[in-house]
What we know:
This protein is an alpha/beta fold.
Amino acid sequence: MLPPLVADMDIAAPVVHFLRAQGVDVLSAREEGWGDLTDSQILARAHAMARFVLTHDADFGTLAVHRGEAITGILYLRPGGRPPAEVMADVQALVVFQKWRWSLLHRLSKGISIDE
């Protein structure tokens, strides 16, 4: 499963709703009324809540790498400006992969052959 997320202002509402329907814990910056916050402030709030930032905005990577701001994680969806349905298809593939990965790790931790 994906980690808890803060969806940046540029993540469309249908994508947020889709993630929630998939069981992902998503807090929406838009729903929280964080429109006046800077990217740095959103990143700091997400980190304080141990959440990854879900964004189309490359500035978050700049803040984390070049400025060295503390982060829990950034899930960077590129390119931005795509229709929500295309973004949801990408996110669905990520959710399916994460479920498969956790299932595989669980099987291996129990000593179950992955060939079974």
